[in-house]
């Protein structure tokens, strides 16, 4: 596509987004403008052709879609900076900022600029993100454009705004939860004979295959578990030992702890 994209905040998620947009072949590197204050830290992506800058206003003026990818505490300042540069007929603002609601964004930008919230994860770079999108009354073509981008970067669904916090925990924090699970399995693999590299390879491919089975068959995970648990067998012995030690419970409790934290943070911001 020839239209330009601005990514304001070239950190972890901003750079993952830039890489995903390039890897998906949806945008050429030259179509992307990535900003941060310390631009020397993103010189690597400039070598690939991406325009880098510390000028958010310039990047916004040049772009059609503006992605906001700064930390929550930095978002209001950046929105105030770009507000005068946004043209409702030309721009779409897509915020990836955790806990920043549409009403807060509108209180700074006004009511006319199309605003979308998106909660992806760092697998954007590999075009394997799960992204949840939320928006108010927006033009059909803008909705299609935003969904099209995130569908090229993995899978994308629209959810009500009140579920954005839950989607942050499940999809964005979920990457860390899944990788900690992977690390544990790989560590076990080392204890039973594999070197670290082999163990991680076996564990990662197994996890990927299991996830695809659940996703593509549409079956409940327990259905696939039943297929590998022989009565009195090896798998069920391991699984039950894990459950005796609180495996499922620990995961659910961890997820809820993250959710409580996000709810507290959002509550503090509103008050
Ligand atoms: N990481 C994830 O997996 C993930 C997933 C979904 C959503 N998010 C959300 O994405 C946002 C960014 O998270 P992150 O993990 O990518 O944080 P991060 O790595 O700290 O990235 C934030 C970036 O914003 C830049 N920045 C700060 N102030 C700026 C300004 N005034 N103008 C331009 N750039 C500025 C920072 O660079 P300088 O200090 O050099 O300016 C930094 O590179 C957060 O709101 C987070 O909730 C993150």
Euclidean distance between termini CA atoms: 42 Å
CATH topology of the largest domain: Rossmann fold
| Overall number of structural domains | 2
CATH class of the largest domain: Alpha Beta
Shape: elongated
The CATH H-level superfamily of the largest domain is NAD(P)-binding Rossmann-like Domain
Provide the helix percentage. 40-55%
Give the number of DSSP strands: 8
Topology as H/E string? EHEHEHEHEHEEHEHHHHH
Which percent band covers the strand fraction? 5-15%
Structure in words:
By secondary structure, this protein is of the alpha/beta class. It has two domains: 5-159, Rossmann fold, CATH 3.40.50; 167-270, ProC C-terminal domain-like fold, CATH 1.10.3730.10. It has helices spanning 12-23, 43-47, 56-62, 72-82, 102-109, 140-152, 164-191, 196-217, 221-226, 234-244, 247-270; strands at residues 5-8, 32-35, 51-53, 65-68, 92-95, 115-119, 129-135, 154-158. The chain has an eight-stranded mixed beta sheet, sandwiched between helices. Helix 6 (140-152) links the parallel strand 7 (129-135) and strand 8. Helix 7 (164-191) packs across helix 8 (196-217) and helix 7 (164-191) runs antiparallel to helix 11. The structure holds NADP nicotinamide-adenine-dinucleotide phosphate (NAP).
């Amino acid at each position: 596509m020839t239209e330009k994209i601005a990514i304001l905040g070239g950190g972890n998620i901003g750079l993952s987004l830039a890489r995903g947009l390039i890897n998906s072949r949806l945008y050429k590197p030259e179509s992307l403008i990535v900003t941060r204050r310390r631009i020397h830290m993103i010189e690597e992506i400039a070598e690939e052709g991406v325009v880098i800058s510390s000028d958010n206003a310039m990047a916004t003026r040049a772009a059609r879609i503006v992605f906001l990818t700064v930390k929550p505490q930095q978002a209001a300042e950046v929105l105030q900076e770009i507000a005068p540069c946004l043209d409702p007929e030309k721009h779409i603002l897509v915020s990836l900022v955790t806990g920043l609601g549409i009403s807060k964004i509108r209180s700074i930008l006004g009511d006319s600029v199309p605003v979308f919230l998106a909660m992806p994860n760092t697998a954007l770079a590999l075009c394997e993100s799960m992204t949840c999108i939320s928006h108010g009354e927006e033009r059909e073509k803008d909705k299609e454009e935003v969904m099209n981008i995130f569908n090229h970067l993995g899978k994308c669904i629209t959810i009500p705004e009140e579920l954005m916090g839950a989607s942050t925990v499940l999809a964005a924090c979920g990457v860390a939860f899944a990788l900690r699970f992977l690390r544990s399995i790989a560590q076990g693999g080392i204890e039973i004979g594999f070197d670290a590299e082999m163990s991680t390879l076996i564990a990662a491919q197994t996890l990927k295959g299991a996830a695809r089975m659940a996703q593509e068959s549409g079956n409940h995970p327990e259905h696939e578990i039943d297929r590998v648990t022989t009565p009195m067998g090896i798998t069920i012995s391991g699984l039950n030992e894990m459950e005796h030690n609180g495996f499922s419970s620990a995961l659910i409790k961890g997820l809820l702890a993250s959710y409580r934290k996000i709810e507290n943070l959002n509550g503090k911001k509103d008050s």
